[in-house]
Write a structure and sequence with these properties.
single chain, mainly beta, 12-stranded mixed beta sheet, 3-stranded antiparallel beta sheet, 2 helices, 15 strands, 43% strand, globular
Length: 273
């Protein structure tokens, strides 16, 4: 019995190690959906007039090229019915506005008309607390060997605030996103935090704090859990289908992917000591 078992094990091992045929799995495909990247970010110290919205579609699993959507009508309207038109950079799927007027707590409505379908979303622009200081600790993490960076701010009192934090590391390929709300530190000093084993002296880390709304933090929590806090923008289409705040008013079942958000943003570059 022992000998027979050994021979069987060798045969199985040989079978799996000698098979080198490439097998292409046939995956079911569904009609492409519109993907909308509509993050209006007002960087502190700027007018916020220059904004961009990107349109593309979903594609098959094996297609490495993301199809761009051209020829759409894209505009944003505020509560005073002022319209900000986003004009396409020809054949790029990127729609540009150069006269946007950001106002804290103002409500904006996004409208996109593409291929006979009309998509809309409503959101308000949220402020962000200024960054007050950045502190480095070279003995962070459970191993006490991780470079830890804390970015401090004073949360405004007597109002509910929601935050998105982004840390962009030197190689430009790794991003760290996470969200927070001021439930336990309202009106007090608090911080975002980064822990990264790969940092070294002289590296530059780009730190961004975003003010976001309650619906946005709920959406972001889902996306970050799916993505595992890895590379890419959380406002892009996720690997799993997650419905955002964009509604197809022509045909609700033909929904778009993506999200419409508006944030005041503060960004600092920190050089690791």
């Amino acid at each position: 019995m022992k000998k027979a078992s050994l021979v069987f094990a060798i045969l199985i091992a040989t079978l799996f190690t000698s098979c080198e045929d490439v097998i292409t799995v046939s995956l079911d495909t569904s009609p492409p959906k519109l993907v909308i990247e509509a993050s209006i970010n007002w960087l502190k110290g700027t007018t916020g007039a220059n904004q961009k919205i990107r349109l593309s579609t979903t594609t098959s699993y094996y297609n490495t090229i993301i199809p761009k959507v051209s020829g759409a009508t894209v505009f944003v309207k505020n509560s005073s019915n002022t319209i900000f038109n986003f004009i396409e950079n020809p054949n790029s799927g990127e729609y540009i506005c150069s006269n946007f007027i950001p106002v804290i707590n103002e409500t904006y409505i996004l409208t996109i008309i593409s291929n006979g379908q009309t998509y809309t979303a409503t959101e308000s622009l949220k402020a962000v607390a200024p960054i007050t200081k950045i502190v480095q600790n070279n003995q962070g993490g459970f191993d006490r060997k991780t470079i830890e960076i804390k970015t401090f701010y004073n949360d405004p009192p007597n109002e509910k605030n929601y935050y998105l934090f982004k840390y962009l590391y030197p190689n430009k390929t790794k991003l760290n996103y996470y969200v927070d709300e001021d439930q336990f530190y309202q009106g007090n000093e608090f911080f975002s935090i980064s822990q990264n084993n790969d940092l070294k002296t002289g590296d530059t880390v780009q730190i961004s704090h975003f003010g976001i709304s309650k619906p946005t933090i709920n959406y972001m929590n889902i996306l970050i859990n799916i993505a595992g806090n890895t590379n890419g923008s959380p406002f892009q289409s996720p690997s799993a289908t997650v419905r955002g705040n964009i509604i197809n008013t022509t045909n609700p079942t033909n929904y778009a992917l993506g999200y419409f958000s508006l944030s005041e943003v503060e960004t600092k570059n920190y050089i690791v000591q």
